[in-house]
Amino acid sequence: SQQGEEDPQALSIQEGENATMNCSYKTSINNLQWYRQNSGRGLVHLILIRSNEREKHSGRLRVTLDTSKKSSSLLITASRAADTASYFCATDDQAGTALIFGKGTTLSVSS
Amino acid sequence: KAGVTQTPRYLIKTRGQQVTLSCSPISGHRSVSWYQQTPGQGLQFLFEYFSETQRNKGNFPGRFSGRQFSNSRSEMNVSTLELGDSALYLCASSVAGTGDEETQYFGPGTRLLVL
Q1: For residue A81, which phi and psi values (nearest 5 degrees)?
Q2: B45 touches chain A (CB under 8 A)
Q3: How confident is the model at residue B24 (pLDDT cuts 50, 70, 90)?
């Protein structure tokens, strides 16, 4: 079953603009992760934020987590064409050994 | 370190056949997980192995099985293939598969087409 739900499902922006994707989940979590997938290939891990953290940065990425609202957001600043991909949030299951993914946001960055 | 490798990368089978997919984790990683990705259902967890033992299993029929070897390499098998099994099968490895900082690293996937 899906845990996370990303919003929007698709996003189209111009190079240089910022892209914001949101993720909502249903149950309590230990951590939340964001992954990127280019055109049906493997997933690339972007960032992990723990349940006791509110914000985390990695390069042009900024992730926030609001456990009271069971939501997270991923901000990509100064987007590039190479950022064109699908972005997924994932939470751990109760056993802590499986990732439960949302359906993803498809980001298209045009030059 | 070399990343997670999966073989084969592409596979075409017919209904009723069986298939075996292979995954070699990152050196030193003992946990291997398998996921199925389809346009309709998205990414779904199949199972997770650690030290040759299945620790966790997703909601898939018994036609889907797996195993892990002593060198942490893993295989998954799908018997009596159905059209709906057409998907991208992704393998992921991590050091121990649990814990707050446990990141799963994914391979490129095996794309299976069932005709």
Answers
A1: -55, -35
A2: yes
A3: very high
Q: Report the pLDDT averaged over residues B89-99.
A: 84
Give the closest of B31, B50, B108 to A42, CB-based: B108
CA B19 from centre of chain? 12
CA of B39, closest CA in chain A: separation in Å? 9
Interface of A with B (CB under 8 A): 1-2, 30-31, 33, 35, 40-45, 48, 50, 88, 90, 93, 95-104
Helix (H, G, I), strand (E, B) or coil at A94: coil
Q: Mutation test of the interface with chain B: which of A99, A100, A105, A106, choosing the one with the most B Cβ atoms within 10 A?
A: A99
**Cβ neighbours for A68, distance < 8 A, ≥ 6 positions apart:** none
- Each residue's pLDDT tens digit, B35-65: 999 998 999 999 999 999 999 999 999 999 9
For B100, the closest of A50, A90, A99 (CB atoms) is A50
Region of residue B9 (left: phi > 0; alpha: psi -120 to 50; beta: else): alpha
What does the pLDDT average to over A6-13? 92
List the beta bridge partners of residue B108: none
User: What's the CA gap between A12 and A2, in Å, rounded?
Assistant: 24
What percentage of residues in chain B have a pLDDT greater than 70? 96
DSSP A60: T
Distance of alpha carbon B98 from alpha carbon A106, whole angstroms: 29
Closest Cβ–Cβ partner in A30, A88, A99 for B45: A99
Do B50 and B97 form a contact (C-beta atoms < 8 A)?
Answer: yes
